[in-house]
Amino acid sequence: MKLALIAHDGKKNEMVALAAEFKAFLQGCQLMATGTTGGRLVAELGLSVERLLSGPNGGDLQIGARLAVGEVDAVIFLRDPMTPQPHEPDINALVRACDVHNVPCATNTAGARLMLERWAQLR
Ligand SMILES: O=C(CO)COP(=O)(O)O
């Protein structure tokens, strides 16, 4: 399972808590993340994560490009709906790419938990 993990600043603690909860499953995945999110997952959980650029510097677009050529199976993108982001077009492009290529994308922890629980069961 090639999984992309992304969280806005206001959602990074939630992402770390979610990843801690599913750490055993995630250790068996090929993980990629935007720069700062990935840094937290590496530093705080010891996960092996391919870190791309930070979101505002193009990380979302990098993940979208990888997804478009079949290199991402699913995305967990914890967006902060309360905070305007300077790279909103990049965020929309990534979510659109998920829809174009029919790649599952969870944008909150409730959806992410459903996805992760199911995949962990299937493993
Ligand atoms: O901005 C982001 C996603 O749009 C996340 O980027 P960082 O993980 O680098 O903070």
UniProtKB/TrEMBL annotation:
EC numbers on record: 4.2.3.3
Gene Ontology terms describing biological process: methylglyoxal biosynthetic process
Binding residues annotated for substrate, in chain numbering: 8, 12, 34-37, 54-55, 87
Superkingdom of origin: Bacteria
Catalytic activity: dihydroxyacetone phosphate = methylglyoxal + phosphate
GO cellular component: a single term: cytosol
Stored InterPro entries: Methylgl_synth, MGS-like_dom, MGS-like_dom_sf
Enzyme class of the recorded protein, top EC level: lyase
Assigned keywords, A-Z: Lyase
Active-site residue numbers: 60
CDD domains, alphabetized: MGS
GO molecular function, one term: methylglyoxal synthase activity
Domain MGS-like: 1-123
Job description of the protein: Catalyzes the formation of methylglyoxal from dihydroxyacetone phosphate.
Protein family according to the UniProt entry: Belongs to the methylglyoxal synthase family.
Protein name: Methylglyoxal synthase
